[in-house]
Amino acid sequence: MQIIGPAGSGKTTLFNALTGGRGSDGVGMVDVPDGRLGRLAAAVSPRRIVPAQVRVADAPPGSRAQRIAAAREADVVIKVLRGFGPVPDPVADLEGIELDLALTDLATVERRLDAVGREVRAGRRQGAAELDVLERAKAHLDEGHGLATLELEPESSAHLAPLFPVSAKPTVVIANVGEDRLPDGGELAERVRGLAAERGWTALAVDAQLEAELAELEPADAAEMRRTYGLDGSGLDSVARAVWEAGGLMTFFTAGEPEVRAWPCESGAAAPVAAGVIHSDFEKHFIRAEVTSVDELVSAGSMEALRAAGRLRVEGRDYHVRDGDVVFFRVGR
Ligand SMILES: Nc1nc2c(ncn2[C@@H]2O[C@H](COP(=O)(O)OP(=O)(O)OP(=O)(O)O)[C@@H](O)[C@H]2O)c(=O)[nH]1
Ligand SMILES: [Mg+2]
Hints:
Elements: E1 2-4, H1 11-19, E2 27-31, H2 35-44, E3 48-50, E4 53-57, H3 64-73, E5 77-83, H4 90-121, H5 128-142, H6 154-160, E6 171-177, H7 186-198, E7 202-206, H8 208-214, H9 219-228, H10 235-246, E8 249-255, E9 259-266, H11 271-278, H12 280-284, E10 286-293, H13 294-300, H14 303-308, E11 313-315, E12 325-331
Parallel strand pairs: 1-5, 3-9, 5-6, 6-7
Antiparallel strand pairs: 2-4, 8-9, 10-11, 10-12
Helix pairs in contact: 1-8, 2-13, 4-5, 5-6
Bound molecules: guanosine-5'-triphosphate (GTP) and magnesium ion (MG).
């Protein structure tokens, strides 16, 4: 995930808070909290508990083009808006980012229109439907609107997908508010949420500076401090979870004595592909998957107990792993 936003909105502060200061060269890994991990661990008592992680990148120094190129390559974009300091206007920040990204996509769409238009006029290919979608996208972008608000039928969006429009990327919006606006960010954040919702995005009010300080404290002290601000959980955890959800990833688990672990997986992945997340060889040498759920495993206490009782489902190559599956992969060599 890539952080973007106007100068001084708190991007680096949020990056440092998320990565606990361990990010180097503006890139770091962030744990994705998941309550199911703790329940599995309580049942299995593993030596290690390993959460899934997402990779986060701070806005790179350099030109506007470089920052936009970075956003374009990311699966999820985090937009940080300034909600602290003198006359904060996070709505204007969000609109400014939108205009910036819309102009970028406009240039891409115009180039594509030229290329497709030339081929269609020369009779080298059919393309009326594609040209129509590109024209609609161009008109929308011309008005400064990002493609997240352009309503298209699925077969029409298929024509835009190969252009990787950056204004339509999965997005999490962070209103970086000062302490005086906690816990919910007040009216400013409310308007940001409204704007984000129209685009299908999650928006969160977070005080990045406070979260960075809380992350340095012992958990009990941090919780106590949070209560004084009326916060009921870690803002950083909420950010990580929102990014995970925006990215369309799901989670499956492995649960053994050495390690209980959450794994990221594309939604709807076939079992061998999910096995390949653990080790690339596992995809090639996949034999079968033994599958259960978190609840079943918690009540049985171990994969072995379920296996012995004949209660592990045996699934083949065609099985599609589901969110919350606990899996043991049988692989050959
Ligand atoms: N009060 C308050 N100050 C903040 C908050 N977040 C950041 N700041 C301050 O705002 C200034 C800019 O923060 P940065 O995190 O460097 O902002 P940035 O977006 O990375 O800035 P550039 O990379 O220069 O565009 C710093 O002085 C921060 O201490 C916040 O949540 N509350
Ligand atoms: Mg910075």
